[in-house]
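Team,

Forwarding the record for the chain on the shared tracking sheet. I've put the sequence and predicted structure together so nobody has to dig through attachments.
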Amino acid sequence: MTHLILTRRAALAGMVALPFLPTFARAETIGSITRFDPALDAVIDANTPIEVLSTGYKWAEGPVWVKRGGYLLFSDVPANIVYRWKQGEAVVPFLDPSGLVGPIPAAIREAGANGMAVDAQGRLILADSGTRAVTAVDLATKRRTILADRYQGKRFNSCNDVVIGRNGAIYFTDPPYGLAEGDTSPLKELAFNGVFLRTADGKVRVIDDTLKRPNGIGLCPKKTTLYVAMSDEARPQILAYPLDAAGMPRAAPTVFHDFSAPLARKLPGLPDGLKVDKAGRVFASGPGGIYVLSPQGRALGLIATGKATANCAFGEDGKTLFLTSSDMLARVRLKTPGW
C-alpha cells in the first residue's frame, strides 16, 4: 500500500526536518466529502466532518481495528513502528520495531510493517516490508512467527498488504517498494511483483505474476471475489478476480474501477489500500482520497483529507472509517457499518 516510489520519496524528503513523534490532535477537522451519486447518502452524509486524531508520521499506513481490545493499530512504515490508538488515550508505539530488527541495510528503503489484518485466531497478520515476509504476531505476548517469506526458494520483494481468506488462508501483495532500488535492487530475487495466496497448510501459490505494482488487496463478503489495487501510473486500476472453491482465480480478472480520470487531474495519490464493507461496497484509496465504490465499481463519493491517503479501516462500532493519510491518522463517521 505504498504509493509510486518517486511520489513517496518526494513526500518524505519534504518532511525530514519534522520530529517523527505523534501529537494527539483534539477537535481538529480537515478536508471534505464529495457526492458523485445519490446512493452515497445511504452510506455517509456529505457534511460529516473528517476528524484528525494524530499527526507527525513519516507515512501512516495499514490500519486495523482490534475488536477484543477496542483499539486501532496502524503502521508508520519508514519509521518501522506500529502505533496503537484508543479513544481518550495518547497514541503509543505498539511494535517497535514493527518489521526488520537490527541495523537497516542501505538497500532497504522501508523497514517497517505495512498492511495488517487480524485473523480468526486473534493474531495480528503483518505484511512485513522490511523482513520481506508475512508474519503473525501474538497480540498478548508480541511474539512473532514468520508464515511465509519465499516462493519456490526465492525471497519475496517487500510484502505490502494482506487480507484473510477462507479457513485461515492469507492473500498478499509483493511489490518492490521496500527495496531502495525497486525492480533493479540487487536484493530482488523474484523476477516479478506478485499477488500470492498462502493456504491454510502453509503452501504459497501465485494468484497473478503479471502486474507491475500490485498494492492494496481485499475480498468481497462471501470471499468469492478478490480485489487488487495497482499503484501504477500507466494502469491506475482495481482488478476483480473471481475465485473458485479453492480460493484461486477461475477466470481472468476484470477492471473493477479505473482511476485514470482523477489521476489526469493530478489529484494526490494513487490506488493503494482498500477495504470492503459487509454490503460489498469498496472503500478504496485513489487520486484524491478514499473513494466509496458500489459493489459494481461505480464511484459514489470521495472522502478527501487534501493529502494522499494510503489506506482505511472500519472500527469502533463498525460505523467509523479510520484513514491513514500521509502524516496523519483521521476518522469519519458512516451511516452503515463496515462489518
